[in-house]
Inverse folding.
């Protein structure tokens, strides 16, 4: 009989794993820096060569990977718990597609670049989420209706993105494709702070709603009986999750499948307990590990979105097959 590991030690293990990957990315890349010199740089000392390598290149990249991964993991898991469906991640229901379409429009048509593109992506992600919420409002907004509306909007926005790319200049097309792939290449500390602030604000909002969200898994009628307002809880969770995903997408692009993968993997490892903090840690592991593999372990340098996309597609097929088998079981 398989022995289940309790949730708290597993959560601690995930956090230690994320911290270990963070330290690994600071010390070892295509070239390795002595640990003593890395520690000295982090303590504020100037070490020729290592200071530039750590402070200007590796530290911003590792910090951005960590906060983006936590945000995607937390946002995706909260959506999946709220809708009681492991397929209901922002990747699937159109929020990432909305941010991506707006970013491509700002690059290709408006000629924008840098932080302005991120701002447009954040605003668009919030707007698309509001549209999905409004179109799916009603008694069935809790589940299938919201997912179906989101999938439809995602397909429509995907077509808009494809049309913009077909009509774009070669340079703009390359820049837009780099952003759409999801990448932390060239990360700067100025990109980290907005995502970190959003993670603190919206993550705190989710922490305050976690108890009501957990009760909501029992169904609306049971939740009302226990004093929880289902629609108000969903609105709070949606605002927090969309905020997390939109800011993360604005900083690094729609890194594929991190929001989709982190929650189910965390729930499986922790036995369905402490899923939100475990998903945040798992999201950080996926982005830090994916970026490290794409930059160091693979023969060709690849953006993190390509690596996580390669992991996510088979997992999506596995979930669909597993769901079909469960429905077919008498």
């Amino acid at each position: 009989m398989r022995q289940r590991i309790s949730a708290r030690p597993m959560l601690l293990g995930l956090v230690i794993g994320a911290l270990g990957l963070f330290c690994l990315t600071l010390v070892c890349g295509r070239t390795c820096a002595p640990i003593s010199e890395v520690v000295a740089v982090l303590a504020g000392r100037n070490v020729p060569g290592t200071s530039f390598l750590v402070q200007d290149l590796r530290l911003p990249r590792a910090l951005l990977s960590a906060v983006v991964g936590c945000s995607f993991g937390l946002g995706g898991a909260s959506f999946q718990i709220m809708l009681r469906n492991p397929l209901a991640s922002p990747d699937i229901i159109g929020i990432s597609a909305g941010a991506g379409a707006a970013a491509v429009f700002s690059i290709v048509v408006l000629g924008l670049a840098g932080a302005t593109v991120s701002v447009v992506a954040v605003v668009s992600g919030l707007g698309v989420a509001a549209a999905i919420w409004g179109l799916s409002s009603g008694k069935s907004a809790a589940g299938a209706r919201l997912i179906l509306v989101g999938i439809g909007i995602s397909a429509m926005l995907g077509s808009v993105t494809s049309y913009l790319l077909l009509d774009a200049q070669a340079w703009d097309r390359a820049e837009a494709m780099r952003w759409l792939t999801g990448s932390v290449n060239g990360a700067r500390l100025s990109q980290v702070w907005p995502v970190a602030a959003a993670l603190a604000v919206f993550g705190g909002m989710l922490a305050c709603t976690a108890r009501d969200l957990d009760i909501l898994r029992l169904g609306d009628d049971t939740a009302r009986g226990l004093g929880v307002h289902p629609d108000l809880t969903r609105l709070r969770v949606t605002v927090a999750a969309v905020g997390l995903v939109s800011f993360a997408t604005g900083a690094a692009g729609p890194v594929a499948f991190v929001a989709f993968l982190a929650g189910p993997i965390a729930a499986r490892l922790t036995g369905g307990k402490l899923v939100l903090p475990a998903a945040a840690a798992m999201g950080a592991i996926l982005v830090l590990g994916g970026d490290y593999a794409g930059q160091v372990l693979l023969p060709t340098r690849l953006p993190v979105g390509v690596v996580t996309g390669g992991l996510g597609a088979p997992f999506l097929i596995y979930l669909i097959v597993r769901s079909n088998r469960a429905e077919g079981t008498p």
